[in-house]
Amino acid sequence: MSQVVAITRNGVNTEQLYGTLDAIKDDPSLGIFQFRAHNHWIDGAHNRSTIKSFYGAGQEDSTRIQEFTVDAGEPAILLGTDTGPNPAEHLLHALAACLTTTLVYVAAARKVKLTEVESTLEGDMDVRGCLGLTDEVRNGFSRVRVNFKIKGDATPEKLQEVVERAKGRSAVFDMVSNGVPVDVGVVTA
Amino acid sequence: MSQVVAITRNGVNTEQLYGTLDAIKDDPSLGIFQFRAHNHWIDGAHNRSTIKSFYGAGQEDSTRIQEFTVDAGEPAILLGTDTGPNPAEHLLHALAACLTTTLVYVAAARKVKLTEVESTLEGDMDVRGCLGLTDEVRNGFSRVRVNFKIKGDATPEKLQEVVERAKGRSAVFDMVSNGVPVDVGVVTA
Q1: ipTM surpasses 0.90
Q2: Is A89 helix (H, G, I), strand (E, B) or coil?
């Protein structure tokens, strides 16, 4: 009698995880994804993205029922009315979220049970760049620091390894660290 | 008799805008900012950032009353339960939001009244990278496309110029295009 046990570790169904990896190994075309966002300006520094559709695993997704909305803004000192985190803060969130999910998945695959993952991110910016006051500084962060606090049923060395592997595989860490070609088109009408 | 009129254009108080630019020109140290996010893992692909404090204009901010929370997740095909946009989608939002706010501010400064700004973003990803199945593709997007639709009381050429200037000054466009040094520290306890 064979025994099939669905093992969920760190909230990740590891059978589904291994199954997904095997399916994409067998048919690499299933790994092709396209993610999307639609943004519209509301007023001043207030704008909103709606996020729902994506392409992946050979088809347009039909499983996501909910459309997500995410608002952006600026604090008063940067001429906004605090209608949401500002875009640079959203970038920090994207980075934190991706490193965290990647390390949670890596830990699940490596049989490490996590009990706590927290991170604090700081990004340094001289806003003279993005305000157009000087070309001597860049427009974005000069540097970002991420500090993780992580606990689980593994040695400190093993937990460190999990974080290192997450750095080595996180999509957003790659993009923020190395950059991505971005094409910008405009229709005026 | 001097006449002082507060001109709000595109939802931006242009007097405050010019005043801010002058103040930072006079004292460049006021341009030093630090933005922050704190993230904690909830379960599986679900994690949440809280965003509130920042440093800027020579002091810790005391004006932002509200703490923002932003949730991340993954769709079922990527082993989550759709608890929020995924991290790569959040990055697209950060990029859209920053380009939009920058172009709205640029237009306000250049006396262009905007009536509509929308953008659609697509990012192409072969998830074999971030899933650790191959080193032949990168972990993040191979390419991002941003398509703006913009309307206002200016010629198409002028509106195109505004978008070009926003590309040239957007903090997140700079970071996503060119990358940023990211330090990752870990405490295990």
Answers
A1: yes
A2: helix
